Amino acid sequence: MSLGAQPHRGQLRVFLGAAPGVGKTYAVLAEAHRRMERGTDVVVGFVEHHDRSRTEALLHGLEQVPRHTLTHRDAQLTEMDTDAVLARRPAVAVVDELAHTNVPGSRNAKRWQDIEELLAAGIDVVSTVNIQHLESLGDVVESITGVRQRETVPDEVVRRADQIELVDMSPQALRRRMAHGNVYAPDKVDAALSNYFRPGNLTALRELALLWTADRVDEYLQQYRSEHRIRSTWQARERIVVGLTGGPEGRTLIRRAARMAAKGSGSEILAVYISRADGLTSASPKELAVQRSLVEDLGGTYHHVIGDDIPPALLEFARGVNATQIVLGSSRRKTWQYVFGPGVGATVARDSGPDLDVHIVTHEEVARGRGLPVARAARLGRARVVAGWLTAFGAPALLALLMLAFEPDVGFANDVLLFLVLTVTAGMVGGLLPALVSAAVCSALLNYFFTDPVHTWTISSGRNIVSLAVFFGVAAAVASVVDLAARRTQQAARLRAESEILSVLAGSVLRGEAQQEHGGPGPSLDALLERVRETFAMDCVALLERADERAPWTCAGSVGAVAGGEPPAGPEDGDTDMPVGDHMMLVLSGRVLPAEDRRVLAAFAAQAVGVLDRQRLLGEAEQARELAEGNRIRTALLAAVSHDLRTPLAAIKASVSSLRSDDVQWSDEDEAELLGAIEEGADKLDNLVGNLLDMSRLHTGTVRPLIKDISLEEVVPKALGGVPEGFVRLAVAEALPLVAVDPGLLERTVANLVENAVKYSPDGKKVLIKASALADRVEVRVTDRGPGVPDSDKDRIFEPFQRYGDAPGGAGVGLGLAVARGFAEAMGGSLEAEDTPGGGMTMVLTLRAAHGRAPARPRTPAHAAPGHPAQRPGAPLQPPRSGTAPHHPRSGARQQPQRSGF
Prior knowledge:
It is built from 24 helices and 26 strands. The chain is an alpha/beta fold and 902 residues long. One of its GO terms (molecular function) is ATP binding. Its EC number is 2.7.13.3.
């Protein structure tokens, strides 16, 4: 290197983790060993192994630069010694945790800034970062996990990396790794699995990492193709471009492309409409709007491109998006129209090259003609038209009188220019026809009064003839241009207003459909009609319908779809009507709409009918679901009454009959055993009848929770009143917030969960009850070590009258968990089932924290960001006995049945 030359910049390689614990640091150290074995000078600038034995073992054999020690708040902390690494000047430096915040007093505030110095010095760096530490994803990660990341790194720092490698692992595998103690210490595993490392959280973080990495891969690919000027298509995945003309065949093309895309995984549809730069087109905006909605419903995207020459513009777009196929429709032109050229489809197929497949799809509109552009006359208004004609006739005569009266000697050329100004003015005010008339009048006046010989229609000079001809031609041309510009300006303003109206309409509908998908009310028909009334300034808007042609018109909907005043009795009573189908009509009262407004009105009418149909279908589906559920419950109830209720009754009757028998002298022990059997059967009956009544209340909607702020310590012991001693261990976090619940419903919910857990726990394995706070909610976790339930059956165990596997005969009717989930949801909470690490099942009851007392935010480790709430282990709970509590085995060996849903 010559004196004074700047060193080349080092390369950055980032291992991006989908979640903490997936093995980023392990992968970095393995990469360091591979490079060292190839002879590369590698040092470890900073790596934190967090007491993980396998990671620590990989540090052996690697040179580690001594760390820099700093004192902060009377504590000795270590950071990477950037100066020492620069002085050592290795070829590659391993620096862990890109988003780490340095101790105050360090050389830089953030570790990524230290890495920038190493790169600037020509040192290659291998580093790590988790997806949740990217700056742009902070709010998203907090909404998913409930934990705000304090340490972040700008996205651009990671995007500038020369290589990005995703380190990924399935949520189930990561949770098993944690349960085996390979990530955190054993005393922190349960808290981590219960909070940050839930399966849902890990799945969402994994999706974020995959999407972010895929976006970066696309950037790499586009950058590489641009740098190497690659114009051909690389078929990394199928991208199908559909060329739209605005004609009716577009829907056929879109559906055909969707079928082609469905044959390959990951295929993408891009519909493109190419319009001319001058805005002159024969496309139907209404048809384009329908086709745009169709392609978006099928999972594709819609694009509008400006281009004067359609085939090159279409090919340029297809190659720009790296498309692999183009779908076009057969030409609608007549046979004689091919004399003007081969057509768009043939030209695109000829110029596409070997990298693009062009599909020509036949349709019903083939060779039927494309039609002429629709004339869109400008509505200038009566005042402007009158002013234009007055300008065309009066202004030239007035100018001629003034010029004759004062006789100014300005020359014939200037006379022509003065009259030309009047012609242009007439075109701007009144449009094309007044301008042409003005040009003719001005030419006649110039000829008669200002062209030799004057006061005659004879022109003696050939130059004057040319001047007058040029004047008329220029005047007509300028008037045409001015008129066209005025018309296009007005059309553009109108189309812009229409597009804004349709955009607002589509947005409100999409928001309503999204609300329906998430359980919301969906789009409102009344709100839509009110928007129609406001848009067109009407007094009343009503959607009318009738059963057949002879039936009278009535307002659609159960409560009448009308906005504004008194609805019209029929279409004849309104000022404007828009038919929708055979038996529906949108009727407006207030004024007669012009023809050009009916296109937007048609869109509103179609959407109103769609909203009405959707609401009716939802109502019918809900009724059908309720009927089916009622039939299923009645059938199951009959089965339960015929078996599960008769079993304890038979036991009670047998015991009572034995006690009343005079033939046998029962000892005190025998009598006590028979009385115990009677009590046990009565308890079973009481429990079964209670669950049946609770389920009946839930399905009839008569559960009305009385929400109040209460502490869990007031409810949980009451719920455990019937549990035998030594079967339950309680461990709750300190300083738990109050919960907003119905105490009675919560007590019954916890009792059912504990009963179910105790029933399936092996001998000697206590049921663990934990409670902890996370964000704005409180969780109660009931954990057993029983046989567990496969993921595919976790939801089924919460259904009424469902018993998973071979439940024993006395196991109940399968209502306990269904009642528990119903009560939890009635209180605004939720109940889910999760696997217990090491085997078993954990029921997670999520409750709302009371607003009056905010929950404490979980403390988050810097390297992983999960919350680890403090735990308070408790001794085995010894609650008081209750004669009405659910029955449990009292002593002796207990069978281990498979899990059942009660």
